Amino acid sequence: MRYQRPKGTADILPGDSQTWQYVEGQARQIFKTYGYQEIRTPLFESYDIFSRSAGDTSDVVTKEMYDFKDKGDRHIALRPEGTAGVVRAFVENKLYGPEFNKPYKVYYIGPMFRYERPQSGRQREFHQIGVEAFGADNPAVDVEVITMALRFFKKLGLSDLRVAVNSLGDQESRANYRQALIDYLKPHYDELSEDSKERLEKNPLRVLDSKDERDQQFVENAPSILDYLTPAAAERFDQVKEMLDSLGIDYVVDATMVRGLDYYNHTIFEVMVKAKSLGHGYTTICGGGRYSGLVEELGGPDEPGVGFGIGLERLILLLGDEGVELPTEDGLDVYVVGIGEATNLESFRLVTAARDAGLVAERDYLNRKPKAQFKTAAKEGAKVTLTVGQREIEEGTVHFKVMATGKEVSVPLTDCLADFGKVYQEHVEEG
Q: Where are the beta strands (DSSP E) in 27-158?
């Protein structure tokens, strides 16, 4: 029987995995300059962590989560996003204590799981890069994470970036807006989608995020949350915009944006790119915002948080479609050509000596003809070929060829085995 990977998953094969490693490496490098350190949390958590954080009316919880009962009858869910698990770790490990600097900054890179219809750049198992900063209410931290995301995308070679921002306000702002939204939507109740009917009383802001065409017509003319911000919330949003202006960041205010999870308040944002490959207009490649009540919701103190998430599949697909050339790993430094079975031991010793010198080295293991081995060396871009046959064994030498220059020398086998790095440097790096 032939087995296939589960629907909505992908094999990331060698060659492609190098691209992933490069993108992840750039993220790690940039986050480090902003003081962020890596955190690794479990792939699965208690179901309640996600239902309480994402909101029990969100699509993530009601439709998309992989959840199950384990053998101890515990309700478990594979993580559909990264923030909730990080917050749980922040609370459980008491990272809010006075011994830790504030804001407490972490980033994560890893797989997430959502049961949704697979499509290009969107899988049931997908990978996310995200950051979280806890313990600072300063709107400068909001802007910092936005600029960090932009710096990351620019480093990868993306241009024509834009930021969309909105404010969901504080609790009073949301309460006032919630009622205004209910009053606006109720007369259209019968015309709404079934999902939006269910959400109208529980969480009417979710209607604004509906993708259903029936709901879209009402969303267009819905009241703006910006008209219901308290003076304090409005002033905070003004500070965010002022900082973005001061940095010359291109942004738009999108009053209909609410993001897909219920834990956000105050600043929310999306980073978009104008990509020819994705059609006309801008496409979102990063989203995030502030969530001042989430730490407390999961059993911790009243500590504010802010962060973002980036879907890796979509990002890497975009880089490919846009023709962004990413640096590739150099090929082989050394390829050992062994002529005849009698050279097996010396070939093994030579390739080991090269690797011990920190070089990327490979050899033939199939006892192929020399022509086939040289062909492989050329295909893999080997900088140097070492050839050892019966004659070289008898003479105690190795045939050393620099492929770029055509330089060929006979080198004592003992020198190669004693300090191959020195031999390599003498003949390759010094000419």
A: 37-38, 44-46, 67-69, 75-78, 104-113, 125-134
SS3 of residue 284 by DSSP: strand
Assign 409 to helix, strand or coil.
Answer: strand
Residue whose entry in the numeric block shows the structure tokens 């081995």: 373
Beta-bridge partners for 113:
125
d(CA 357, CA 429): 14
Do residues 154 and 161 lie in contact, with contact meaning Cβ atoms separated by under 8 Å? Answer: yes
Superfamily of domain 16-170+230-321: Bira Bifunctional Protein; Domain 2 (3.30.930.10)
What is the C-alpha separation between 99 and 84, in angstroms, rounded? 23
Domain 334-429, CATH class in plain words: alpha beta
Portions of the chain given CATH number 3.40.50.800 = 334-429
Give the Cα separation of 116 and 283 in Å (integer). 20
CA–CA gap between residue 382 and residue 367 (Å, rounded): 19
Task: Give kind and range of the element (H or E) at residue 164.
Answer: strand 161-167
Residue 47: exposure state from Cβ atoms within 10 A (0-12, 13-18, ≥19): middle
Rounded Cα distance between 389 and 325, Å, is 41
| Residue 37, beta-bridge partner list | 106
Residue span(s) of the chain under CATH 3.30.930.10 come to: 16-170+230-321
- Give the model confidence (pLDDT) of 17-49 as tens digits: 999 999 999 999 999 999 999 999 999 999 999
Summarize pLDDT for 234-258 with one digit per residue, the tens.
999 999 999 999 999 999 999 888 7
Q: Please state, for a pLDDT cut of 70, what percent of the chain lies above it.
A: 96
> Nearest to residue 297, comparing CAs of 34, 74, 113, 50?
50
Identify whether 103 is preceded by a cis peptide bond (ω within 30 of 0): yes
Report the C-alpha dihedral over residues 381, 386, 390, 392, rounded to 10 degrees.
Answer: 160
**What pLDDT sits at residue 216?**
77
Q: pTM of the prediction? A: 0.88
DSSP-assigned beta bridge partners for residue 287: 270, 309
Which residue do the tokens 């010793």 mark? Answer: 349
